[in-house]
Amino acid sequence: MIAEYLGAALKLAHYELEDNTFFAEIPGFAGIVAYGDTLEDCRQQLIDVLEGWLLLGIRHGHSLPVLDGINLNAVLETA
């Protein structure tokens, strides 16, 4: 379920090229940004940041966005 959630979040990612550096963010996910010299480097950093953000949110019981019908909040409440 978490892999599907990560995939759904990455589908929302927005990438830009600014001054020969790639920038990425995921709208609706505060603080999720990444930079890289190549698009692939940027994407990998975005994945790493997103995974850390998600694990921290789960650990601290933060409300997580519902994506493509995947509600991790409901799963966490029953655990």
The secondary-structure class comes to alpha+beta
Strand order in the largest sheet? 1-2-3
β-strand number: 3
> What percentage of the residues does DSSP assign to strands (E)?
15-25%
Largest sheet: 3 strands, antiparallel
Q: What is the end-to-end distance?
A: 14 Å
Order of helices and strands: HEEEHH
Helix content class: 40-55%
Based on CA atoms alone, the radius of gyration comes out at: 13 Å
Please, how many helices?
3
Unreliable spans: none
The 3D shape can be described as elongated
The overall pLDDT average reads 93
Describe the 3D structure.
The protein has 79 residues and is α+β, with helices and mostly antiparallel strands. Helices cover 49% and strands 18% of the residues. It has helices spanning 2-11, 39-60, 72-78, and strands at 14-18, 21-25, 33-36. It has a 3-stranded antiparallel β-sheet with strand order 1-2-3, covered by helices on one side. The longest helix has 22 residues, at 39-60. The chain is elongated, with a radius of gyration of 13 Å. It starts with a helix and ends with a helix. The mean pLDDT is 93.
